[in-house]
């Protein structure tokens, strides 16, 4: 519905749909690059503010980039398992909701860790464990049999 009306508006304006897609992808890439790159500019202020070494901050940033790179195969496994439409409509809604809950818990845990232990180290360890649990859960999705596959095997 929305895509059809947007395509009609673009064609009336003389804009090819491919150009609109390229523009959207460019803006997404620009935004992603900015979000990924701004943390590099904050290394020196973080070292001054919290007393962390540049190695600690760079290690955390490197881990983030590795996890960012591992998202593509995880998404591909979900799409292969459940289909593109289901992944987009259901799974990413859950991912969004869990990111919001995770951000709230991380903010609270960071504040608690800083006020109790006077360091963020415990919060970083807890976040690392949570990431490992999430990675294991995604890995298990690809290893389990779907309900459709079990039904086909039961009928055969």
What do you see in this structure?
The protein is mainly alpha-helical. The protein folds into 2 domains: 1-41; 53-155, no CATH class. The protein has 7 helices and no strands. It has helices at residues 2-12, 17-41, 43-50, 54-82, 84-117, 121-143, 147-155. It is flat, with a radius of gyration of 21 Å. The two termini are 40 Å apart. The mean pLDDT is 80.
Contiguous helical run count: 7
* Total count of strands: 0
The global form is: flat
Mean pLDDT: 80
* Major sheet attributes: none
Give the proportion of residues in helices.
over 70%
The figure for the number of domains is 2
What share of the residues does DSSP label as strand, in percent?
under 5%
User: If you compute it from the alpha carbons, what radius of gyration comes out, rounded to the nearest whole angstrom?
Assistant: 21 Å
Distance between the termini: 40 Å
Elements, N to C (H/E): HHHHHHH
Regions with little confidence, pLDDT below 50 for 5+ residues: none
Q: Which structural class do you get from the secondary structure elements?
A: mainly alpha
């Amino acid at each position: 519905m929305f895509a059809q009306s947007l395509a009609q508006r673009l064609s009336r304006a003389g804009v090819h749909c491919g150009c609109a897609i390229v523009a959207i992808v460019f803006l997404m890439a620009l935004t992603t690059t900015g979000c990924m790159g701004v943390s590099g500019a904050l290394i020196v202020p973080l070292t001054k503010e919290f007393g962390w070494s540049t190695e600690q901050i760079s290690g955390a940033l490197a881990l983030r980039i590795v996890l960012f790179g591992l998202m593509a195969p995880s998404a591909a496994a979900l799409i292969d398992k459940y289909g593109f439409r289901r992944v987009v409509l259901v799974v990413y809604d859950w991912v969004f909701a869990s990111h919001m809950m995770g951000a709230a818990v991380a903010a609270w845990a960071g504040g608690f860790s800083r006020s109790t232990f006077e360091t963020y180290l415990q919060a970083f360890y807890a976040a690392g464990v949570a990431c490992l649990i999430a990675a294991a859960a995604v890995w298990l999705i690809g290893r389990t049999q779907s309900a459709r596959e079990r039904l086909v095997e039961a009928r055969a």
